TrEMBL record:
Organism field: Caldithrix abyssi
Cell location: Cell outer membrane
Occurrences of domain Polysaccharide export protein N-terminal (ranges): 20-87
Name of the protein described by the UniProt record: Soluble ligand binding domain-containing protein
Protein keywords: Cell outer membrane, Ion transport, Lipoprotein, Membrane, Palmitate, Polysaccharide transport, Porin, Signal, Sugar transport, Transmembrane, Transmembrane beta strand, Transmembrane helix, Transport
Keyword Signal set for record: yes
Family: Belongs to the BexD/CtrA/VexA family.
One GO term of the biological process aspect: monoatomic ion transport
Amino acid sequence: MPYFLFLFLFIFSLYDYSPAQKLIPGDGVRLTFYNISDEISGDYFIQRDSSLQLPFIGPIKTGHKDYSSIKKEISTRYDSLYRQVELIIQPLFRISVLGEVRTPGVYYVTGVETLLDVIAMAGGETADSDMSEVYVQRKDQEFVFDAERLIESGEKDKDFFLQSGDRVFVSRKWGTSRNTAILVSAAGLIVAIIALFR
């Protein structure tokens, strides 16, 4: 791998990813090694008991630790195993993208992706989506965003950064073809009933 690309990834990995944020079961880490022969680069996920099983260094307990602490422990353990190891560590935060997107499902973000980024990851909005009402559920809180306005304005600083466990829901437009058909059918039924009574 070219040195400048490794340097870029290394600097990127130093981004603090909101260091107080915790990794919870279902989240994971992405390890990328560049100067060892062992093929152990990959994504590793936290189990229900909050343990993170990694190659050659054994399990790491992640409960009650923030991401920065976990990252430091992983780096320290591999430094003691390999000499001058070149290792990039990134968090993988589990989120759900639902509603009017082309590929709804579970996605993993590294902490730098925004609301618009994860909608793009899910294939983008459908023809029936209402991007003026995009909901983000975070524990017992709910946020509503006008993503359409955000796209039009291009104000990236107003975009929303996601955290582990967030659920993104893209609304459906009122008055799409399906809804219109329901309204027309209902109107037809009402007219038929009125005609019958007359």
